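Feature request, filed as a ticket because there's no other form

It would be nice if the structure record came with a short human-readable summary line next to the tokens. Right now we just get the raw output. Example of a typical job, pasted below so the devs can see what we mean:
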Amino acid sequence: MLLVLYGAGGAAGNFIAGYTVNKSLRGSFIAGLAGLVVSLLLLLTVGHGPAGSIISLTLWGVSFGVVQLCQLNMTQAAAPDTFEAAMSLNTMAYNTSIALGALFGGLFADHLGVTSVVWFGLALTAAALLLTLGTRQKTARTVPDDALAPAGK
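Raw output as currently delivered:
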């Protein structure tokens, strides 16, 4: 049942982000990351009971739905002319992250306990939020047409 709520939250997050990314892509991304941080903190503090688990996992789903849609839009904005290639790199990064998360999560769980896995995820998510907050949004600069011409012509 919790996975259904997580999935429904993810769908709701996609709908929310579908509206907000047009207003502020970066702001939507930051809000989604903040939601992920809060959901992990809730999971650690009140997630031991049914109500806390339901709230934290639903918020996690909503927040991930927002972050995921924002990331797709950021990828398209970063590489509009080579979107398919950029998305294949994005997919490779996602799959690599899942594999590394399983590896390190398993090691953390085996050696430090299951709760340490959530703390590790919280640390990585908080670092991503701080990195995003600490960097300025950059706009693409226009490259003159003659800069793209082959040398000697």
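Something like this underneath would help us a lot:
The chain has one domain: 2-134.
Residues 140-150 have pLDDT under 50 and may be disordered.
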